[in-house]
Specification:
Two copies of one chain form a homodimer.
Chain A: H1 2-27, H2 30-37, H3 41-47, H4 51-66, H5 68-71, H6 80-97, H7 101-111, H8 115-122, H9 126-129, H10 131-144, H11 153-169, H12 171-178, H13 183-191, H14 193-205
Chain A binds a DNA duplex (18 and 18 nucleotides) through residues 1, 4-5, 8, 29-31, 39-43, 45-47, 49-51.
Chain lengths: 208, 208
DNA sequence: GTCTATACACTGATAGAC
DNA sequence: GTCTATCAGTGTATAGAC
């Protein structure tokens, strides 16, 4: 019954993803995950002996969904402006597809920072590859050429990712405080964000 | 023993703040809060009958620490550029003083958005006062005067708050991924953030 | 592999003495 | 107000039948 096995494991992971992202590690209940997967609680422990093991798998999936692919755009051979455009566009699409992952990962990492170590082992090592340093070299070249105003790669990258992620992660506050809990206004706001963020960032660093 | 009463309640609230912010609502334990406060678990229930009541008090304190005061800067009589400067400066100081509150509030609000309703009742109602709309009118005036490039208040405010909050809320990722877990580099990064964010935002919207 | 039943520990909350 | 003792409920995890 390899077929059933794979189907069950798939169901478990999908259910675990859903419940963990909604309730968090401590708030999630094995019972609820079992119910969501349409299986028995004991079967959950048959596949993943402990809640910790299951959680580790789920947060690993979440992390690897966001980091490996998109961040490599930074290493491609296009100009800084093009990189900003491609990155923001891809990143916002990814966030739209998985809106709960950024907040979930950030929150659980804050509660237990040592998770990051395990995450690094199983994902692409950014530091070793020197991606950020390489991007910074390109950036400073364009600064010297007078294309871009002085800025360092760390600030720029944090700004870009923050501008992309914040409106989603802080959805209750943005929708509640800024848009008086009007869902439509909030959704319309998100739709125009891609264009706006690209404009905002490039407008900030482009030399007059 | 009014003196002792106040002291105990103070100790409880301080301990509850610490534990709830560190572990979250579901992860926090009444026992740990009692231990941190140096009192008995039963005494906790004597002051706050349930965990929910205590949590509500704590998240209310956290919320009211961030919203009422600083956001009113938007309503003062200074120029848009000055508002940005004052707001970012005050906001980053406030975050530095209470680095765990933004992530705590955002996370708990995501898990239980209805908290916001109770929060609104007990804090200044932003929507009714039309603060954002007033700020937008001022903004559009300066746009028409050719001082500022076209931008709406919602995008600008989300950008500013996001740029301030993100590096703190996502500390494990920023410190871990961007700075290879180098604490000193991360702290140095935070120190230069105030100046950078102000520059970045104004540079983006200032008409050439 | 999948189920039912259950063990065992922990947690929030209360009772009652001081 | 503050403590000790304790209960009822819930949670993770396992045993054992099929």
């Amino acid at each position: 019954m390899v077929d059933n096995q794979e189907k069950t494991e798939e169901k478990i992971l999908k259910a675990a993803e859903e419940v963990f992202q909604k309730k968090g590690m401590t708030g999630a209940r094995m019972q609820e995950i079992a119910d969501t997967a349409g299986i028995n609680k004991a079967l959950l422990h048959y596949y993943y002996r402990t809640k910790d093991k299951l959680f580790e798998k789920v947060i690993n999936m979440a992390f690897s969904k966001f980091f490996p692919r998109v961040i490599n755009i930074m290493g491609s051979g296009i100009s800084v402006f093009e990189k900003i455009e491609v990155f923001v566009s891809n990143y916002l699409d990814l966030i739209a597809k998985h809106p709960f992952i950024p907040g979930f990962v950030i929150n659980e990492l804050n509660r237990n920072p040592q998770i990051l170590i395990s995450l690094f082992e199983k994902n692409i090592r950014l530091k070793e590859e020197g991606l950020i340093d390489k991007f910074n070299i390109q950036l400073q070249e364009e600064v010297e050429q007078g294309i871009i105003k002085p800025i360092d790669a760390r600030n720029l990258m944090v700004n870009i990712v923050g501008l992309c992620i914040f409106p989603i992660v802080a959805k209750p506050i943005v929708q509640g405080v800024i848009f008086g809990n009007d869902k439509k206004q909030y959704n319309d706001f998100l739709k125009q964000r891609k264009e706006h963020v690209i404009d905002f960032v490039i407008s900030s660093i482009k030399m007059d």
